[in-house]
Amino acid sequence: MNARKIPDIDVKWLRSYFSEIKSVFSRIDLIKILEDLKEQKVLGRSFKYGRFVDLITTDLPILETVKVDLPNDVKTERYVLIDFTVHPFEIALSLNPGAYVSHYSALFLHDLTHNIPKNIYINREQTPKPRDSENKVTQQKLDYAFNRPMRQTNQIAKFSYKKKKYQVFLLNGKHTGQLGVIELKTPHTHRPVRVTNLERTLIDCVVRPKYAGGVEEILNGFERAKDDLSVNRLLGILKKLDYVYLYEKSIYFYLSRTGYSSSQLKMVSESINKSDEASLFFYLDYQIPGKVLDENIGIYYPKKLQNYDLS
Fold first, then answer.
1. What's the pLDDT tens digit per position in 129-185?
2. Which of 1.20.120, 1.10.3470, 2.60.40, 1.10.10 would CATH assign to domain 1-84?
3. d(C-alpha 29, C-alpha 34), whole Å
4. What is this structure's pTM?
5. CB 196 within 8 Å of CB 102
6. Which of 181, 157, 144, 108 is closest to 280 using CA atoms?
7. What keywords is this UniProt entry annotated with (predicted)?
């Protein structure tokens, strides 16, 4: 059998061409690139897509193939630059256009955790939905909601890269208009990635603790963020997010246990006191084992945090 003929092509130029576009490519991306290379007369008009994939992944090679298992038994591939170490977050984001890094993964990018999370969390927002202003919060409703398991997505993608396996939680959070989402270049990523900013990250973790490694990880996140966190900005974002529940109580708990100033605590306290739900007992997490009530704040928290004070 004859070996495949490799086109007469400037490989160095082609590597540069790919690296200037992005780090992770889909099938649609490669189809567009093939057409562009034909237009530039780099490749002949009759050059087929399958042959093109073989050329750039095997013959030269420029990209490596990453096989992805999507929800509902759907299989797909991503094609990743070989000449650079591409972060798994970049591969994950390519699976859901318009998504951004969130929760535990965002904690990691902001250097707010000592751990390297095994799971990747990305969020693609829902379409806008009207809030039911008649849905008044009561103690009975709070008790019912927070004594049940936290709702978690079953939309999980899986892939292997550099001999490591990853799970991607494809979140579908409430519509926020990308509030607090930024482009961030970190030492971890080859290119800037879309991620929630510091304040939005901590809010998201407060709202969905299990997507953040749990309440102890969130406490550590607040402690590590102390020099950079703007409590005023955090409260501004939280107000715009317009949640039904009074998450300011959770935030006050975390701030008070991690040594934030009295003036910062006062800002949060004033926000709590403006709410009709200020007198209700809130919950730091869902299904709290051995819960303890902080009567000063009016919030139930896990007993394991009873002597946990970083202030």
1. 887 777 899 999 999 999 999 999 999 999 999 999 999 999 999 999 999 999 999
2. 1.10.10
3. 9
4. 0.94
5. yes
6. 144
7. Plasmid
